[in-house]
Amino acid sequence: MQEELYQYYILKNDQKKYRPMKMRIDEAKTRYNRFKDLKLYPKGIPYIFKPISAGLIPAGLFSIIQNRQYMD
Q1: What was the pLDDT predicted at 27?
Q2: Rounded distance between C-alpha atoms, residue 47 and residue 45, angstroms
Q3: How far apart are CA 14 and CA 33, in angstroms?
């Protein structure tokens, strides 16, 4: 792949890891532009908003969801 689509990093703050909301918004913008370029925009709406919605979930609940997802 010649072009970077987006770049992110995870900040460690004591015991929790998180990505700042600004990075989540940037990822959503990138997803929007790519889905639009590929003419997949209406079908891509759930994928566009996924990083933002994940950022709105409380950290404790998000951790439980992640652990359950990786345990299966």
Answers
A1: 94
A2: 5
A3: 35
Please check the confidence at residue 37 and state whether its pLDDT lies above 70: yes
Biggest alpha carbon distance in the chain? 42
CA angle 37, 43, 49 (to 5 degrees): 85
| Nearest residue to 22 (alpha-carbon basis) of 44, 46, 52, 50 | 52
Per residue in 42-65, pLDDT (tens digit) is: 899 999 999 999 889 888 887 888
DSSP string, 2-65: -S-------EEETTEEE--HHHHHHHHHHHHHHHHHTT-HHHHHHHHHHHHHHHHS-HHHHHHH
